[in-house]
Amino acid sequence: MSGKETAVEVVLIWAAVYPSVLLFSYAFRWFGVGAPLWVEILVSTALTVPLITFVAQPLIGRAMARLREARRHRQGTAHPGASGGARARRY
User: CB count, 10 Å around CB of 5?
Assistant: First the structure.
């Protein structure tokens, strides 16, 4: 993965984390939970990490794969599996 792709992926993950943490923070206040800040952060991260791991990350991974495939298509580079697989080199 190139540096640019890594940067895009980091921004997309952050774009998923920030609203999740913000939503859980607002939910604490909306429900009137008067928990200390450390408990609020503990609960919000306990909910956010699985959400990001099992929902957002797979979606981001598929989106990044589509972007890479579209870029390969625009550049005229064949898909790695399109030529029938890897060929053995003769030495």
Answer: 13
